[in-house]
Amino acid sequence: MAKNHQKVHAIMIPYPFQGHVIPFVHLAMKLASKGFTITFVNTHSVHQQISQAQTTLASAHDIFDEARKSGLDIRYATVSDGLPLDLDRSLNHDQHQESLLQASGSYVDQLIGKLVAENADPPVTCLIADTFFVWPSVIANKYNLVCVSFWTEPALVFTLYYHLDLLKQNGHFASKDNRRDTIDYIPGVEAIEPRDLMSYLQATDITTVLHRIIDKAFTDVKRADFVICNTVQELEQETLTALNQKQPVYAIGPILANDFAKTKIAMSLWSESDCSQWLNTKPNGSVLYVSFGSYAHVSKHDIVEIAHGLLLSGVNFVWVLRPDIVSSDDTDILPEGFIESARDKGLVVPWCHQIAVLSHPAIGGFLTHCGWNSIMESIWCGIPLICFPILTDQFTNRKLVVHDWKLGINLCDEKTISREKVSANIASLMSGEILNIKLMNEMKKVRKTLENATDGSSNKNFEDFISAVKVNIVSR
């Protein structure tokens, strides 16, 4: 029995958003290269978006087709998220989240039950699910699978959610008037200001569907056999050490493809514009890359002020503006005459291959929403950051970037964005002056930490995690 189970067959299912799918795909490739059999599961909706976006890629119907040709045993499946395919999940966000909370687990249960009943070869032995799902431990227990929770954000964010009870007890969360003094009682976190908590923990209304998901997900994760985290041991040592007192947590980041700038796996939910020709015409380090990610919405006022700030700064820029970036029916979101005024200094695209842009020598800075993937990719490419967090973990990620690691600056310190402040901060970052030199020196140190971790602590943690999963399987 033990010999038969040495070949680990893991079901992997990311939360159905771009920022979660990407690290899950890279992890699947990494595990498969270590001999795992992977059945990767997307929702029908995510799969449809990927297929529609990748019209020129023959393997878009099965995103791991090329991987299998290279000898990796990665199978592909899709399940319903409980909603009709033609429903716009961006416009119906709460309905989508409610369905993920209430219905998605039953469809995953059916898929795994079918694989078990059909005696999948090798047998299914492990479930690797996104931490934000509320059902992994229940399904894993039902089929006697090793339960692995994959956290795609920093350990700091994980531990703040993990200790919601402490935040409640001390009145920093779920209080009519949340306390505003420093939080210094979370294990492994020296101190954090309430303004740096995730947006959901700063809210006074905690009855939303997202609050219910967080509550249930972080009850479920405490029943997982293992937690793997897309972070680096050396960057969050104290937090990870404290978490490991609770349950096994492995820092295995950064989760990036070996040749990530040229990966052919279809995982983008939007068609990607090629910016390389335009970037090739610009001097090294002269272009600011601007993107606010795949999920967050921005007000038209902020877009207008940022647009004017870009023009006032005089820098070259590539600006990713998703069609749905402003949560309204207004499609004319840029100031009148902006494109003409930018002329050859600016390139505006609906979406792009971010890592290909960040790794281009013309890029000298990144104005970002502070999504965790964006931060990891920017550090890997050595690009300093201007931080404009919008929601969820982005405020906490900004704390790490600006205050702890000193790799970036704030777009605006005031609550209201002004074009003058935007322009000044952009010019400051891109000018090559003292501020930029300090940021680049810190960036080199942290980038070296990431590089060393890929061959050192993260690689060791990854190997230890694999060994622990195999031992757990055999012992069942």
From TrEMBL:
Keywords per UniProt: Glycosyltransferase, Isoprene biosynthesis, Transferase
Sequence similarity: Belongs to the UDP-glycosyltransferase family.
Name the record gives this protein: Glycosyltransferase
Annotated SUPFAM superfamilies: UDP-Glycosyltransferase/glycogen phosphorylase
MF (Gene Ontology): quercetin 3-O-glucosyltransferase activity; quercetin 7-O-glucosyltransferase activity
Pfam families: UDPGT
Origin: domain of life: Eukaryota
GO biological processes: isoprenoid biosynthetic process
Coiled coil stretches, renumbered: none
EC number of the protein: 2.4.1.-
Species classification: Eukaryota, Viridiplantae, Streptophyta, Embryophyta, Tracheophyta
Keyword Glycosyltransferase appears in the UniProt entry: yes
Pathway: Secondary metabolite biosynthesis; terpenoid biosynthesis
InterPro entries: UDP_glucos_trans (IPR002213), UDP_glycos_trans_CS (IPR035595)
